[in-house]
Amino acid sequence: MSWTRGVLAGLAVCVLLLAGSAGCGSGGVEEPGAGDSATPVGRLIDGTDEEGRRYREVDAEHAPEVGIEVQPEADDSWDVRLTVRDFRFSPDGTEARAVAGRGVAHLFLDGDLLTRLRGPRYRIAAGLVPRGTHQVTVRLYADDDTVWAVDGKPVESTADITASDAEPTGATQPEEIEGLTVTEPAADR
Question: What is the DSSP string of 66-124?
């Protein structure tokens, strides 16, 4: 029964290793963290964004979702609030690999990249939004810079905003109307 002693010794070594930082039979392969995917996420497809980043196709039931709300502020800036579902923002310095439901958001104004977001809030400075109607779009990206996509379309959301001048509209005052005489009240004479 010497084989029993060998098996027991092997199990004892595994138990000791598991109590430490390595796992039995890990072979130096990094184990995924809590919530991380141990296998590649989705599949790369031919579609790309405007900057050539490939789309990473995932099933609709496992896909992250994003919504956007943009509100004007008193200082003429714009408050951007994102709502996400099945998605979490990665902290700065995260390894460049795709993990299910994790990454960053890119914020665009009329198709031009404004910033990369690692959280659900952003303020667009007033000077960046000229008078007129504009589109503010948020799109979700994996940490490897691929675009999360469903049915060949990026996971994104768009809001329209309209900026107007803060200056007076140029309405004419009564005393400026030609041919009109303004009479002062009798008590002021």
Answer: EEEEEEE-TTS-EEEEEEEES-EEPPTT--SS--TTEEEEEEEETTEEEEEESSSEEEE
Distance, CA of 11 to CA of 96 (rounded, Å) = 36
- Do the Cβ atoms of 81 and 68 come closer than 8 Å? yes
Summary mean pLDDT of the chain: 79
Task: Decide the pairing of beta strands 112-117 and 102-109.
Answer: antiparallel
pLDDT (tens digit per residue) in 64-75? 999 999 999 999
CA distances from 143 to 36, 76, 95, 161 (A): 12, 33, 7, 29
DSSP character for 39?
S
- Encoding tokens for residue 181? 């005489």
Q: Can you give the pLDDT at residue 136? A: 98
Q: Scanning the structure block, which residue is given the tokens 């902290």?
A: 91
What is the SS3 assignment for 177? coil
What's the one-letter identity of residue 160?
D
**pTM assigned to the model:** 0.69
